Amino acid sequence: MRxxxxxxxxxxxxxxxFLLVAVFERLVPLRVLRFFQKYFVNPSFRWSAGFMPxxxxxxxxxxxxxxxxxxxxxxxxxxxxxxxVASDGRAAQYVRNIExxxxxxxxxxxxxxxxxxxxxxxxxxxRRLRTMNPMNGVFVxxxxxxxxxxxxxxxxxx
Length: 158
Known about the structure:
Helices cover 44% and strands 30% of the residues.
């Protein structure tokens, strides 16, 4: 009984922390958010995102630098298609990189796969979030400022 209670307290604390970060991301100015994501969230999450179910690492080519840029994202793999919802829509730097060059690589389930990304402004991103990773869906729904669905058509595995 005690173990169950401790487990519930831990899970509840994680959920509250998760929601607090989402509210923080929603309320802070965009410049502060970019700094927070670039120097704290992405580096700490990037190493595991490509292996965790419901998450991946997207590699785009920088539109100005021409260098590879890797960003951890939440989404869902359905066959040879990876779906994600960009919480900042077209303001997200990786979305801007996709607009300039749609060739991307995705690390999902520990494997790198090449693909072509498509921005879908006519898709319903909130409905799409419900069909993917539920934990990330809640986070993106709370933190999102201009949701945009992204579909990545991946090359078939050999």
